[in-house]
Amino acid sequence: MSVRYSYTNAARRLLEDATVLWNHLAGTSETSAHLAGLSAECVLKSILIGLGHAKTYADGQLRDRDLRRHINATELWSEFQSALNGRDGASYLALLPEERTFDGWKVDHRYVDSNQLEVAALQEWYGAAVMMGRLLDCAVERGQAQQ
User: Fold this and answer.
1) Is the Cβ–Cβ distance between 132 and 97 less than 8 Å?
2) Which of 18, 71, 77, 104 shows its CA 20 to 30 Å from the CA of 32?
3) What pLDDT, in 10s, does the model give residues 60-104?
4) What number of CA atoms fall less than 13 Å from residue 99's CA on the CB side?
């Protein structure tokens, strides 16, 4: 079975799932914060594709392996910020959380036991992902996200 990659749809689905967990567990869920980080990275990738700054294969997956990084990689943030220069960047940058917001986030957190990560970090990652969701909504409205 072949699959289709959609960073736009993945970002929305992951954020919806993160929100359900976040609300159900009163904002202390490692899993919710993990999904939120994955959602935020999908937002960046969707917009890079939508702006024509990143190419995809026919199935929608990113061609550039350097862009297949996780949200805590500064290279992904740098690539995104470079793409925004001169392309309606000011409005997007105003909705973007600080570059270092996801520094402590790791894809390997999916393996951690409960209550090992600081609640403040979980709250920051989840809140930043919600901001990134607004950024994606803006890009979709403008036709500047992966279709």
Assistant:
1) yes
2) 77
3) 999 988 878 887 766 777 777 777 776 566 677 777 877 678 888
4) 10
